[in-house]
Design brief:
alpha+beta; Heat Shock Protein 90; 2 domains; six-stranded mixed beta sheet; 12 helices; 6 strands; rod-shaped
Length: 415
């Protein structure tokens, strides 16, 4: 039986009805008392009416509390007060056979009231029942007091189980919604990074092919072949991004950066095959995305003639980190370009990249080169280039087990 949910079919409705109805066994005594004929006609009619109203209120309250939507708090208090009043009135007027009604009042308190209120209401109902029993039939006092108290507190546990089940179901629904939103954000970031890089390269090669076609048709044909290759790879990447299985590798992105920068006429200074000992795959993937985003912005927006890429392992107070730096000498800015204009604001690309790095414990820094008056690595004057630096935690390399230079060691040498 599913707690806290409406029945799905008639079988489940029947099971819930039986579970609730079995507790009506304590009404056998009032029922038999009315059939005995010991009361006047008016007393019997009043007894049947009172018993019908009592059972109706009780079943309405219990069945609603076992579902996902309970009655308003004021209505719950009113129903419990009515049940208590009917129990007192019927027991005092019709005799000790009706004392069992207080058990249902105790159940209603334990099931429908908040936990702290139920801890007071159940003993209060028991005391009220004891006073009434002491007046009508003192012999039943001990057994009924214990029964009313124990069943009432048992129902507080059932109530907590139902409420916890409902809250857990709502939490699961919230987690599912958040997971769906996260997947949409991941897909948006991946498509931006994939298509931004690929379409920029296709645009560059298309322009080159158009300029080469009149005088060098063979070279133009090579550019068209490259465009086809890039387009096919972009299609594969998009399919893998949708499937959620694609993780770019640094070596592949370095090779792609060489091609993209060369096609844009940018002189590239790139590291050799990177040594990534001890670096988890997800952190390498985050750096690969950073390299792709940075190179795409250099090609599309910087107007640079040179671009230097370095990959360095550093020892920091928080442990070893792997640092990727992409620096150009162009007058434009990758950060501003990513946002669709010049300036220092972050755009969708760098925002998504920051989120990727933060997920693996990394960080991203961007800004103009040489703000302190020192020239950058590309040789341009201070303030004339742009630098993107991405860092992720890294394991200690095997060759540096005895100690690591705090200033940093190059992971790949420049070519």
């Amino acid at each position: 039986m599913r707690l806290g949910q409406p029945p799905r079919d008639w079988r489940e409705l029947l099971r819930k009805a039986l579970w609730i109805g079995i507790w009506l066994v304590f009404l056998n005594s009032p029922f038999l008392d009315l059939l005995s004929g010991e009361h006047s006609t008016a007393g019997t009619a009043g007894g049947w009416l009172g018993l019908t109203v009592f059972v109706g209120l009780y079943l309405a309250l219990v069945s609603r509390e076992m579902g996902p939507r309970a009655f308003p708090r004021w209505l719950i208090h009113g129903i419990i007060a009515a049940l208590g009043a009917l129990a007192v009135l019927l027991t005092l007027t019709l005799g000790s056979h009706w004392v069992g009604l207080f058990v249902y009042v105790s159940v209603a308190c334990g099931l429908a009231l908040p936990l702290r209120a139920a801890y007071w209401a159940v003993p209060g109902t028991t005391v009220l029942m004891a006073l009434v029993v002491a007046y009508v039939d003192l012999d039943q006092l001990s057994s009924m007091v214990l029964l009313t108290l124990l069943i009432g507190f048992a129902m507080t546990s059932v109530s907590q189980l139902v409420r916890t089940t409902i809250e857990l179901r709502r939490a699961r629904a919230t987690v599912a919604r958040l997971a769906a939103n996260e997947e949409r954000l991941r897909l948006a970031r991946d498509l931006h990074d994939l298509l931004g890089h690929s379409l920029s390269l296709i645009t560059l090669k298309s322009e080159l092919a158009g300029r080469m076609l009149p005088a060098h048709p063979d070279k133009a044909a090579q550019q068209v072949a490259d465009i086809e290759s890039v387009s096919r790879q972009a299609l594969v990447d998009v399919r893998e991004a949708v499937s959620g299985y694609r993780r770019p590798r640094l070596a592949e992105e370095l090779a792609g950066a060489q091609v993209a920068l060369a096609a844009a006429g940018v002189t590239a200074d790139l590291p050799a095959e990177p040594a990534l000992d001890g670096v988890p795959e997800e952190r390498e993937s985050a750096l690969a995305w950073a390299l792709r985003e940075a190179v795409t912005n250099v090609v599309r927006h910087s107007g640079a003639r040179r671009c230097a890429v370095s990959l360095i392992r550093r020892q920091t107070l928080d442990g070893p980190v792997l640092e990727l730096s992409v620096e150009d000498d162009g007058p434009g800015g990758t950060s501003g370009a990513a946002g669709g204009g010049s300036g220092g604001g972050h755009g969708n690309g760098l925002t998504g990249l920051t989120e990727r790095l933060q997920k693996v414990g990394g960080s991203l820094e961007t800004g103009r080169v040489g703000r302190t008056g020192q020239p950058g690595r590309t040789g341009r004057a201070a303030g004339s280039g742009y630098r993107l630096v991405a860092r992720v935690p890294a394991g200690v390399p095997q060759e540096a087990a005895g100690g690591t230079d705090a200033a940093g060691d190059a992971v790949g040498s420049g070519t």
